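Appendix B, example 12.
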Amino acid sequence: LLGPDGNILAHPGRLTVDPDDLPPGSNDKPVVTDEDGNKFLITPGVPTDVEEGDYQLIIATPSDGLDVDDGIVSILPKEGNELPPAPDFGADRQNITVERDKTTEVKLNLRPMTREVHFKTSITGTDVTAITSVGVTLYSVARRVDVSKGFGAVLAEPSGAGYFTTIAQSPYVPDGIIPMRLLGILSERPRIEVKVVIGDSQYTYNEDATEGLEGFNKGNPDEPVVLLINLNIEQDDLEEAKVTGSIKPWDKGKEVEIDGN
């Protein structure tokens, strides 16, 4: 018998992954690593002959926009330090022992690895029908997560690698929700920047978001964090408009206002 690398197996066993544990339509294959660090892919539902021994299996699905390596899932940057919103994916990592002349069947346990922030925006002081778009940028977002520890087990980045994610709503929907999906928040103080575009003019509002996102990584990944963004564009002349506002983190009916500028 030949192994995944094409070499003859001295003490063959068999490894198979239950395909019923994958989401419908998934074509992703688990990455299996042997004791020597050699990696190969295994097709769910197809028995694979391997050498007896210990293996590590990892899978993230759907995997578009992700890099999976050595138990770590990473989001691929768009450009520079900008990250796209995280895809809604589940992942699993397992240690497996394959015995000689036996079939080891693996049941996957895909766990959600991301969580959403919902930005609910309310803008006053200007004609909202004239607003072209509203963009929200969140700084200090995570790029990597340790699958074995589950959601929120984000990894620190080298000093100066301040990753951020931007999402925009165009056209603007008054009191609408702008969703942003993330791997998590880094320990550095997160910051929110809101950009309101009216015609050829752009107005910016910045605020520390530490309080509003406290505990994000430890919460239920199936429950979004809702941040209420209230902005007022004070203007006599639009060209000299001043933007003031606040953010109210919302949690089961509790609102706590955070003042910004």
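The radius of gyration is 23 Å. Confidence is low (pLDDT under 50) at residues 253-261.
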